[in-house]
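Quick note —
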Amino acid sequence: MALAFLSGYPPTPDRLLARFLPPVAEGVAAQLIERLTQPGDLILDPFGQSPQIALEALHVGRRIVVANFNPISRLALSLLARAPSEKELLAALTALADAPLTSGERLEHYLRGIYHTTCVECGAAVEADAFECDAASHLPLTKTYHCAQCGWHAQVATDEADRAQAKRFQARGLDYYRLLDRVAGRDDPDRVYAEEALAVYSPRTLAALAEALTKFETLDLNREVRRLLAGLLVVAFDALCLLTQERPKALVAPTKLYTEKNFWRALEQGVAQLVGNGNIEPALPLAELLTARAGIHAHAGPTRELAAQLPPQSCALLLSTVPRPNQAYWTLSALWAAWLWGRESANALRSVLRRRRYDWNWHTEAVQRAWAQVAEALRPAGQLIALVPEAGPGFNACLFNAADRAGFALTGAAWRSDTAEAQMVWEKSSAPTPPADLEAEIQTTALEAATQILCARGEPTRWATVHFHIWQTLAAKRLLAAVSEEPLATLNRWIQTAVDTALDLRRYGAQAGDELTVGLWFVAEGQPTLEPPLADRVEAVVARLLADGEAHLEQDLLQRLYPHFPGALTPERDLVLACLHSHAQRLAGERWQAHSADWPEQRAQETHALQAELRTLAARLGYEVRGDNPQYWHEAGEGVYCFMVSPLASLGLAVRAPFSAPSSFLVVPGGRAELIAYKLRRDPRLRAALLLQRWQIIKFSQIRRMLADEQLTRATLEPAFYADPLEEMQQLTLLG
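Predicted structure written out below.
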């Protein structure tokens, strides 16, 4: 049931619609497709939210069908699968630039002119890159530009001429109504929602859009040029939209200040954003694709229509990035589609104009319906896979529930908490008979799952990870679909009751009555199945992977690391990087190579030498030595000191090893200091153990200094142990 997390490469930051489309890691889809299908197999993406999935399927020689009712998303897919060259894009932009206005002026000249200003340094006429505007009056307060004449480049205050030019563009002028009418007529009940969408554009931007779209509509252009211009216009639509959030989910315009960008500059920047290698992937009608060896078909209608056209058991794999509810993107898509292709093109998006709120119940039903509709197209041995960036407890619960209700049994799932990424795999299966006491079974299963993952991780853990494992376990046992009344709310209530009343669970950093998301969850003391802390085990595997002394790509290290920690054990990337920084040096090209001092033979020799030096020091001070590692110093038959020498920052010893000595020491290389500090910050249980002074941490170098100190006596031994403490240990001592 536990799946090894597949780590891809960060998505390209400047790709088309990057802030709206799911940030799925690049390369993950290709890995899954190559692992689970054969060349020429047919793959179906029933949501079509990530163009990257289709592109990767094409690149590894598979046929793919993509369903997406959103014409803007289909355009984005088209521009990736049929990537234009720079020459083609520039030719398309030139066709728009040369379009004549009624005044005889070229469109480009007009659009550049509405951003004209004056250089404050030399007085030359320049073109502003952007204005910073007051949201209430829409008047520019500052301007940013580069003066070719004097080289001045800065953001400076606007003058009266700048403000006078801005006043030419009325907030509700003719251009506003021209654009509004393209979306919804005067008697259209959806007009009010279109007005809300237009509010995220400035008056000057609307004027620029109105002129450009009029020429886009009336110019005699071939289909390919129109496709490329539509792509460039969408880049500008996105760039000039006033939404300020990096990944906006709702249409909320700034209330104080906003940045008004240059429309023509945005079109020019779109060339660099859309340019590809000029390769054309074959886009085929569905009937032709079903008999072809390669190609792509983008279905524009509802998923149920596509399902009726697909032969039963024709697909080897159902693979999607499942969409999160996004009112901002879906509403803007309706707006942009109507602007580019007329009101009818946005008919499929009409409902999103009206919907103000998307809850997880609505989303569960939508996802369940889509998966159920295409289930018959999947081969008996085929699999359904969901790649889930921006995952969270609500979204994860939605998907586990939707798949169970659509007739799929979970076969594997993985979760990386710090980046909130999930990967889930199902296969078709008939639903089992639900247990007689469903509530009791779910609560028992939830508590067992919570205890299991906390014991397996061996360290206090955030609720999102515990939640994921609980729902993963319930899905694997097919217990979700059996809950019929308000399923998500009911399941969450039963799960909360189970964990809130559990005697075997505890929380750090939370009080009675706090939400489940507050604090860190852990098991009560005395669990016999408790594993060493996950952080210690991750460090140990990282050290082994680096042990050959070779330079390794970070991506390769992650791919070799994650199979050791499947499912909800997947370590945070920050933890892996902390281990890498402690044991290796970062080279060019995202490569890591172990420090020479951390090569296995070197560290083994150093560890043995430290143990011998401790024995020598004990003998010099008159202590009897027993054991090797741990090494005990005895006096009169009683243990006085205990030393564990480790090349790793194995802080789990502080809570797992019941050494019978009043003072216990973990002796580590000084280079582990930052990693120790990181582990202490993330694990309050370790901090508590150290505050109780059950253990102290000493550097290798301090033991050597003590051995070299010929004046060292029993009287000065204790102060010498603490003469060079780790900074984090000093802070903990002050806190204690």
